Amino acid sequence: MHSPLATKPLPAAQPLDAAAPTPDVLLTHTLRSLLAPLGGSNGSRALAAAPAGPASASALSGGGRQSLAPPPAQHRPSLSVLSPVLGPSRRTSSNTLATTATADSALSNGGSSSSAPSFMQALTKSLANQGGPGGAFSGVAPPLLPLSPAPQGVLLQCCDHLQRIFGMSADAFEDAVNSVLDVLMPDAVARDLEACHLLLTTRAASMLDPSDFGKPDDFESWRAGELVVVEKLVALTTGRPPSYLALGDPASLAAVALTVVEARGLLAKDKASGANNPYCVVEHAGRLFVSHAIEHTVDPRWVFQVPLILSPSADPVVVSIWNRPTGFGSRRSSQIGRPKEAFLGVCFLPASSLIAWSKSPSQQLQTIDLARRSSKSHVTGTLSIHVVPATAGPVRQKQPGAAVPSAFYALPPDTRRYFYEIYRLAAEHDIITAGGRELSEISRTILHDLSSSWRVGPVFRDMCAFDIFTKLYIRGFVPADVLYNEGFSKAYRYAVNVNATINVPELAIFRSSSTALSSQIEYQLGNFFNTIRPTADEPSSPGTRTPQVLETITVMVSAMQTCHLINDGNQEVDVTEYASNLLLQSLRARYHGLLGIAHAQSNKASSLPLIRLVQSIRDDLELYSRRFDMILFGRLHLPSLGAKTLYEPVAAQLEEFAKTYVAVSPDMSDVFDLYAAVRQLQVVCEKIDFRLADRFPMSSWFKSFVRQWLERSESKIREWVRNAIEVDECVRLSDTVLHSTSILDIFTSFQQQIDFVRSLDWPNEAESQLFFSRLLQEVCECISRYVVITKEKLLQEFSELRSKQPVKRRETTARIGKIKIKIKTPKLKSSKTPESQEVHYRFSSKTCVRLENVNSLFPRFEELVRTVPHPRGDQPRSSPTSEGNLFYGDPRYTVRVTIARGHRFTPMRPWNTRVSCRVSSSTGRELGRTSELVQSSNPQWDERVYAIMSEREVSGGLRFGLVHHVPGRSESLFAVGQLHVEGLRAVMDMDDGLETLIQLGSYGKLLVRVHVSRIEDTNFLVSMTEWVTSAALDGFVECFVDQICMDVRDRVHPITLKYKTQALTNFMNKSKLFQRGDDDSANSVDQDEVAADLAPFFDFLNANLEILTENVEEELAFRIIGRIWNRVVEIAEAMVVPSLGEDPKERKPWDSRRFQFFKLCIQNTESFFESDGEGLPATMIQTPAYRRLQFIIASYEMPRATLLETYEQYKQELLVQLRQQAPMHPAVQHQQENSRHVRDSTRAAQAAMGNGGSGGAPPQVQKIDMSDLDWLLKLLKMRGLKDFVDSELRERFNLA
User: Cβ contacts of residue 273 below 8 Å, gap of 6+?
Assistant: First the structure.
């Protein structure tokens, strides 16, 4: 079908996206314009944003946005030329520098000047012989760089955003910014606007010309307004009018593009290279331009173009050449510490000659002899220049590839084409790459400032937005409402205004975009009413249009049909659209008639009006289906149109009714009568179009009371949890029930909610299960919240206990029957009786009850779940969107992530670094993390993370981050990998979930399994709650252990110093001259003295453990005390041997007497925790950490040679067993390791203890684990073999 839009003839115009500038050129001009902003006041920014034209003067008084960059600071003086001809000495602080620009394409073929010497050549040669006019060239000096400061504030944010827009690396973008800042002065844009003002004044050229306007008066109006705005901008930025106004009549001035083509025959002055690294500097009227350097040549070719505003009487142009020293890089961002740059020559160019040459094609290329700056200068060679009249705006020429003689440096030669390109890149980045719905604020800031500097009017900006967002809409990246808000409404604001002036390029963009948008909307509307149903094996697709989108599309179509710039007004109306509009109007009228009848009949029958309305609509649709089941005009199905049209208002009525019912509680029988009527209407609509059945959200209409009750209950449950904790006095309920009232209160509330939902006995079991699942989910979240609040209060109470002073020992109360553990102090000598001793209590009965509260959460939750009815096996599983329609619109899923193990991880120093895995969603929400393991090549976690995620989060994928935990430092995210869940239904159908390897950058891989199920999966909620409570209980246990073990080392270490042998005594004991009798007598330690010294420490432990065992059940108490014992062992080991990490200082072995005390201390501590069989069992005493400590004690006094021999023997046995293992796939290896039993190390411990440090046979090592040798490595490190230990650790990781 042809488009309904009839367009008028349009003048030929080149598309804006044709021959787009290269990214490098576009970025360079963008940075120049942003880094050299217009004036820093609000008034200047308001002026910059003002449109060009007669109305611009009124905009000058308005406010504006703050400038991005701060006012320009003073810079170091640059090149100055002191000459009687040039005037008095001057050094500018606002010079503008330029980098390389292109010249006319003819220059690439070379050229020569006229055969006869010109006046300029004669003058330059004369100056060279004299050392410059009056010897003033001696003041010529190289420029000092950089000239602009680094960006800050909003300007820095703009630069960061440009880096992302252009997709550049940080280093490359920083180099690009620095290369611009090096030679850029803050008034660069203002200088370009001066050239623009001159070209507009003299009518030589402009960014637009008369052919771009429909009427000559429109061009003159635009030109006059632009002159006013540009002049004000220059004045606000520089503090003065355009500088060329002081040079005389503008008609006598000229804007030229001077190109320094090349130099030949330069004198070699670079000692390092034997040649030169020459670059040229052009100075005129306070402006300074610096070219790039050509390395290792005496015949450089720059083709360096600079714009100049000249008058016949203006100061001459000075071109100087300098050598950049070899080895100092191509950039000159700092001259500190670098050799002096050698002078290579200078040229003196009168302005009148340059103007004359630019007007004569035969004289545009000149070759000039280089002059000296003093009589001592050594200069040779010539300089070739090319000068042509400069222009502004797009150049319409026959050779599109030829260079443009631009009058600008900071501004691009064709500002509109460049602005369109940067607008397109910004929009594609913000919407396609970053996933936004519209332009970001920082992109708007950049585009606003560029449009101000580049003199791009608001009409053109909005037309660009219309064209760009139309293309994004056609490609499917933006919805219709974004297109309407960002582009369509702005562009049509000018189209409907008959007084608005739209030039030819803007009109071309508007018409082409409107034509493309019209074709796209026609396609969408045609598919919106498409009645072709899918085949039997193809599922029905839901509607792809929302009422908002349809309304937006309708508004845009109507606007395009009535726009005077597009439609001639004679276009015939489309019959199909006209008929559909009439049918829609009649259906709406029919609905209002049925509504009036329903209200009239309900008043007589005292029933709900909505019931009669639904029944009437059902009867009408049955009539349409029987008599008018046909397709009109090839695409208009009347029953479908009737069903869709009548559905919308009745749906709104039902939505309103559901809200009203909750508020006033009408009779329940009327509600269920209405439910039956709506169900019958749903059946009729499904016969007409089966897709309409999905548009009946029964849950939101007839279960609104349940939904509102659930929502209210959810907030109430959270409130109940907080109140239950606040009023809880943390006193156990009885001798057998160890938790407090808060647990009883919250689970009683939970049970009441379950009983209410169960009493509904809702006929749809799938929906009923969703109710239960949603309620259980809220219970699970409340449990998590209960844990968080309880932990906060526990830590607060622990902090208060630590700050309290020691008190007298309390009398223990009778232990309850279910607690059998009894820790008692060993029979040690003490000067005080237990009753008179003062003890620092770290535990209280209140903290123990809080621990028991957390311990009882999961058992109580299991009891609650058992009261929930289970679905029958013959019930169909609910659709993925049913839960979303019932509750919050976005389907939610339960996700279980199993982090199995790492694969070929790259280890990092220090060697005792621990690693954990953090799992988060694509939105950055942390789902959970694993425990910390000592880093290895293949760490094995086999831990699970549970989460409830929305469909969007699941589709966005999961992120896995490897976190490094270095002792003494904060954790750091080291490597990141991502898993995209493609084919959600397929993953949900997998019984074992999706198993895959995640690439963590170059660090290695991670084996994970992802299992996704629906939210109504009660088993998942149970597993998730168990995971939450188990992790919480582990955290609480660690808090208890940290609380009592925080100062164990501070309590024991000072006692060990008492037994430390002084240096002189140690020397006397070792010397033969002072030996007297038995050597062991000097190192002997009195056991009674040791017992007396350790008594306060054991009293402290015993008093606190009594509090624990009185208030915590036996199994949990054993668990905490076992962890305390293990922590004490670890602290003891750290006291006598160094770690395998980076120790700040070298650890030396303890002397014999001090170590004898240490062994007695460990023996007494073991006896304390055993408590004559009433404490910890032997299985909890003989932990791996304690066996490792026993090895260390047994081998502590071995000579270094014996330790090395023992280590090598152990190592060889392990390597032999490692070589016998064949490599296998990580998944197979993972399955085998799950079934592999752990080596029993008891035999090795007994063997080591039996040797007694005498260097006997080493214990037999059966498990293939190189970490079993860590205790030996610690001993070797203590013996001064740190380098050997590091080498062995590195070899171990390489082997793994």
Answer: 295, 296, 326
Degrees to nearest 5, angle at CA 486 with 481 and 491: 110
* Alpha-carbon span 905 to 1244, nearest angstrom: 30
User: What gap in Å lies between CA 915 and CA 966, rounded to an integer?
Assistant: 9
Residue 84 to residue 81: CA distance in whole angstroms: 10
For residue 39, pLDDT beyond 60: yes
DSSP state for residue 785 in the 8-state scheme: H
| Dihedral (Cα; 1219, 1225, 1230, 1232), 10-degree rounding | -60
* Residue 855: pLDDT over 90: yes
- Measured N-to-C along each axis, helices 23-35 and 170-182 cross at an angle, to the nearest 10 degrees, of 60
Token output for 459: 């009409």
553, 556, 561, 564: CA torsion to nearest 10: 180
Instruction: Give residue 1252's identity as a one-letter amino acid code.
Output: G
Please provide residue 291's backbone torsions phi and psi, each rounded to the nearest 5 degrees.
-90, 175
What per-residue confidence (pLDDT) applies to 1069? 52
CB distance 1268 to 1210 below 8 Å: yes
Number of H helices, E strands in the chain: 43, 21
Could you give the residue ranges of the DSSP H alpha helices within 730-868?
A: 741-760, 765-803, 845-855, 857-866
Number of Cβ within a 10 Å radius of residue 89: 11
Compute the distance between CA of residue 233 and CA of residue 874 in angstroms, rounded to an integer: 78
In sequence order, the 6+-apart residues with CB closer than 8 A to the CB of 807 are 838, 839, 841
| CB-CB contact of 861 with 783 (8 Å) | yes
**Residue 1105: other Cβ atoms inside 10 A:** 25
Q: Return the amino acid letter for 218.
A: D
With 60 as the cut, is the pLDDT of residue 261 above it? yes
Q: At what angle do helices 153-166 and 170-182 cross, to 10 degrees?
A: 130
Q: For residue 160, what are its two tokens?
A: 């960061």
Task: For 840-991, list the strands marked E by DSSP.
Answer: 892-903, 914-921, 926-929, 933-934, 940-950, 958-965, 972-979
- Predicted structure pTM score: 0.49
Alpha helix (H) ranges present in 831-902? 845-855, 857-866, 882-886
**Alpha helices, DSSP H, located in 454-574:** 458-474, 480-483, 489-495, 504-528, 547-562
CA distances from 321 to 207, 223, 249, 271 (A): 34, 40, 33, 17
CA angle 650, 654, 660 (to 5 degrees): 140
Task: Give CA–CA dist 705/224, Å, rounded.
Answer: 68
104 close to 402: Cβ distance less than 8 angstroms: yes
> What secondary structure letter does DSSP report for 371?
B
Q: What average pLDDT does this structure show over 557-575?
A: 62
Please answer whether residues 420 and 13 qualify as being in contact, where contact means their C-beta atoms are separated by less than 8 angstroms: no
Percent of the chain with pLDDT over 90: 13
What the block records as the tokens of 190 is 């203002």
Half-sphere exposure of 306 (CA within 13 A, CB side): 30
* Phi and psi, residue 976, nearest 5°: -135, 140
